[in-house]
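Lab notes, practical 5.
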Amino acid sequence: MHRVLVLNATLEPLNTVSVPRAVSLLLSDKAELVEAAEAQLRSQRAKLPMPLVIRLVTYVRIPRRMPLTVTRRGVFARDNYTCQYCGRTLHPADLTLDHVLPRCRGGKTNWENIVTACKP
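Output from the prediction step:
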C-alpha cells in the first residue's frame, strides 16, 4: 500500500499516512492536496486524484525534545570507544573523559567540550 507524506501548515514534514487516512483528511477539510499522482481513486459517485503529499490546514505544534544530558556511556558511544587523541579503540574500562577546554579555564560540561580519551 502507498504512503502519503503529511506536511504541517508551515510545510514542515510531519509523518506519512496510508492513502485511506489521507483521503479521510482531505474529505473532512482538515488537509489540502499539494501533489497527486496521475492515478485516480474511484468510488461509485466520485473520482479523486491519488494523493502523494497533503498539507494540514491548521498548525500542529510539535513538542521539542529535551537536550540529552552528558553521560560517560553516551560520550563513549558517540566517539565509538576511540581515543580522540591517539585514535586507538579501547575497552570502556581503559577510557576516560576529557574536557577539551578545561573546567578551570571556563570549559563547560557539554557535548561539544567533552571527548573520549585513553587513560595514559
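Observations recorded by the TA: The CA atoms of residues 15 and 47 lie 25 Å apart. The mean pLDDT is 92.
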